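SEQUENCE-TO-STRUCTURE ENTRY
===========================
Question of interest: how does this chain fold, as expressed in backbone structure tokens?
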Amino acid sequence: MQAFLIDLDGVLYVSGRPIEGARETLALIKSRGYEYRFVSNSTRRCRSSVARRLTDLGFDVSSDSIFTPPLAAIEHMKRTGKERCFLLASGDVGRDFEDAGIVVAEDDVDFVVVGDAGDRFTFNRLNQALRHILDGAEILALEQDRYWMGSDGLVLSTGPFVAALEYATGKRAELMGKPSPEFFKMALDDLGRGPEEAAMIGDDILTDVSGAQSLGMKGILVKTGKYRADLAERSGVLPDLVLDSIARLPDYL
């Protein structure tokens, strides 16, 4: 292995608290010459906000090393030449779209972009999305995770709501984040590495481990964040390595 793709929430921190030993692990792998990029299905924060959050938690991370689904969605929209979207998300993630020249609008849109909207997944907003899709807009799913680990337990993520819109409209969403091969490739291309040279470290055996392995990367599963032993056993996925936390990674380098 020459490089690592590393998930954020559940791997470097959980519920706003750094995983013990995570900062030291990043410093060590950097000192030993390994390259890495952060690939997160975070869709509530723009790229710069993600970087600031990590800095506040004590991680030495630049925004250029962070890859999130909105960046992939922006690239996809630019390629199509259609740059108006209805954004179903929360937080400041809309800044990434606006800074890239994408028009975030309430009507006459080409795409319905669905991220983790949290409490903004209201009937009215979902119904607006439904009508746009039935009028011809395509669905871009920033991620399709089932749940994530919040401060008080597991929380519904974007996937269930994307599935509802697909069922209601008969259209299939195009996935922008993990485990989309294009999303992984975006980070690998930035590293200048091929899949066979890299390993993905994550807490989701399907999105992180299986997704990476399907592209030819190694998949490393950590038992922090939303890791669940029962799901891992039922998944049929065999990680290349299972760690109690990312702090144990140096033992295998």
